[in-house]
């Protein structure tokens, strides 16, 4: 199957291996209806958003078709669609007719487009890739989708740790694109437009980081951009909301930047990231004091955030240092064993024994 052949008939035949049989329309039509109504709600509030409505029609028709096919083999999908339809009918009357702000609508649509492109890429290769090991999960479709995301940015020669780091970065970026617009909408309702713009900026930076990773397949720049946004955005929102108490201690989210830096950049650079986080907390603490807010509340928030963050960072850093030390010792012993083997046996025979040992 090619990319373009995926967009064949949205209502396929009722015969064949991937048959569009029962439950068929019972799954397909609710997905089409939900996607269409969501597109109308998000895209018809501003003229420049009208062209984006086509994406929701395509998703409803073709993703609904795929769900209908999958539902033939897994009844839980049918139950999930029916349950989702009931929930939608309950909450739909509570939604505003006009929808959220245009920038939020564009961010949601962009995130949907990226996720749907990844899904199509996985679906196209679903029947072509015969090299995957058999899965043991009860939900092979979900497992294959996870595997597709897992290899979306890998290059030939990437080690297992590098592949895992890229997968983590993909999930961080997608989560930022999906969650930040809803945070922005909540902040807009609270009449905090600058804080809402900061959240939308985080979603945009997450999209840029994801595209950089998928296009270049290199993690350093994309990870640095994502972690910088993760460090600064909660502090900016805290600044705009006027203190620890009124913001709910949102600056604690910035701790994710140094913790993720332990994974992406190692312990030495992560220590610098944590130092930047500490200075950030001290800076906004000094500003709250300057604004004349309650001193006891400020000190209590700052102490708890810094103490908990320090303990969490030290514990995770200690674990990573010990893991690397043990891994290094194992690699040293393996190299020593291979050297002894080469001293005893001829090189071709030693290489054959090593290959036989590594073969599954």
What is the secondary structure topology, with strand pairs?
Elements: H1 25-43, H2 53-73, H3 75-91, H4 102-126, H5 140-150, H6 160-189, H7 193-216, H8 220-241, H9 244-247, H10 256-264, H11 266-290, H12 295-344, H13 347-358
Description of the molecule:
This protein has 360 residues and is mainly alpha-helical. It has a domain at 151-358. It is 75% helix and 0% strand. It is built from 13 helices and no strands. It has helices at 25-43, 53-73, 75-91, 102-126, 140-150, 160-189, 193-216, 220-241, 244-247, 256-264, 266-290, 295-344, 347-358. The protein is flat and about 70 Å long. The two termini are 30 Å apart. 28% of the residues are buried.
Mean pLDDT: 80
Q: What does the overall shape look like?
A: flat
The number of helices is 13
**Helix proportion:** over 70%
- Enumerate the spans where pLDDT stays under 50 for 5 or more consecutive residues: 130-139
Q: Quick one: how many beta strands?
A: 0
For the sheet with most strands, the description reads: none
SSE ordering:
HHHHHHHHHHHHH
Question: What's the end-to-end separation, in Å?
Answer: 30 Å
Q: What proportion strand?
A: under 5%
Label the structural class.
mainly alpha
The whole-angstrom Rg is 25 Å
